């Protein structure tokens, strides 16, 4: 019993310290001490990722004028909680401050719609929706088999079938979001100016120039010092790994 109480007391101490640290970071942000706020938020993220902390970190970087790291923090917050309207708004606002204006390749409207639908919730939120739908399916199945009235059996069948279909659909959405978290195939350019090469070498042909804050997709992750990247408009090239940071 004493051991349990000791463990519980330690947990409360840790939670209290984390809350106090976040309060200190928020206070530093309000006082416009953005360097201190950034330092504390980064310390908090070392103990565990959190969409709200990444969001606050992005705000601190934004106020400091560091758009590349602001976008990186917002992107990480968006990855964890894509349904948050504040995160989405601030990310879009920070993107307007970047130099590179890239027009994405056109795609079928239903693909765009499907992506937007998936991004309404995080993987955990879709997972909870699956549980709710499956529980509703089980309840409706019980009604169908054990309630004698024909009307209620029809209702149970319809509700059960709908809940099952939604559970499967939400499971697909949750899987897609989980894959985004696991793959982490996108990165943000941190260099103020970056020349993209045709080959993974400084002697390669110059293809085009990117600037800080631009989002790229890593398409070849095999090499240690160089990464092949792809832009939303379809351009492809090689960049030194130290010039980008994975979201």
Automatic annotation (TrEMBL):
Pfam families hit by this protein: SH3_3 (PF08239), TPR_16 (PF13432)
Domain of life: Bacteria
This protein's record includes keyword Nucleus: no
First and last residues of every TPR repeat: 51-84
Keyword line: Membrane, Signal, TPR repeat, Transmembrane, Transmembrane helix
PROSITE patterns: SH3B (PS51781), TPR (PS50005), TPR_REGION (PS50293)
Signal sequence region: 1-19
UniProt-listed InterPro entries: SH3-like_bac-type, TPR-like_helical_dom_sf, TPR_rpt
Domain SH3b: 183-247
Membrane-spanning segments: 126-148, 155-175
Cross-referenced Gene3D superfamilies: SH3 Domains (2.30.30.40), Tetratricopeptide repeat domain (1.25.40.10)
Protein name: Tetratricopeptide repeat protein
The organism of origin for this protein: Bacteroides eggerthii
